[in-house]
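Hi F.,

I've been meaning to write this up properly since the lab meeting, where we talked about keeping a consistent format for the predictions we share between groups. The idea is simple: the sequence comes first, exactly as it goes in, then the structure tokens exactly as they come out, then a line or two of notes. No screenshots and no reformatting. I'm using this chain as the first example so we have something concrete to point to.
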Amino acid sequence: MKQACSIPNSSEPARVMIVDDHPLVRVGIASLISACPDLRVDSEAEDIAGALHEIERNPPDVVLVDISLKDGNGIDLIKQIHQIVPSVRILAVSLFDEALYGERALNAGALGYLNKESARRKIVEAIRRILDGKLFISDNLAQHLATRFGVHNGVNQSVSGIGSLTRRELEVLKLIGEGLMTTKIANNLFLSIKTVESHRKNIKRKLGLTTAAELSREATHWVMQEQRNAGANTESVKKDVN
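Output, unedited:
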């Protein structure tokens, strides 16, 4: 049974690219998307080389990326897409553990992570959400991210707050955690100082923080924990995705 597809009015359908090394998976996802007039599968690829070729030739609006591909790691592909065409929205779609790979996909530049077991019910919702520039993550992944911040000095970051951070806000948060000041963050992200200050304000509001010191402490805690986890899981990631 196909998922319901009541849609917002749109003059041109958003162009979607599917990157997965299983032809039947690509066919299944394409059939779900094709039921919606605001979305169109514009291209497909089974590996990193093919995906990059298509993206450089004709960048889509959205790319769905599997984590395990024939010629490498989907996380690496997400990073490359984000660097080559930052405007492309990326959704990771995989069967791998979202607590590990979901977070890595977001850090690489994806706007969401969808487990393939939920794709039949959630794929269209996920695509539309990231097209709006919002994160799409499961409640479990949101809880995992919230737990990474922890509860400090009575400040409890809500699950909904983590889930509502945009990709740009996550980038700003990461740079804050790495010790960069507002001016340096603005230079790194090619933003104005005023825009960075606005992002800082929004992040504090969404995470239930009140001061710059609290934001800096929580961001630093998150980045340090991420670095520790990345180091601990490097070998297992290589084994699983190759």
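Notes:
The radius of gyration is 18 Å.
Confidence is low (pLDDT under 50) at residues 151-160, 232-242.

If this format works for you, I'll send the rest the same way.

G.
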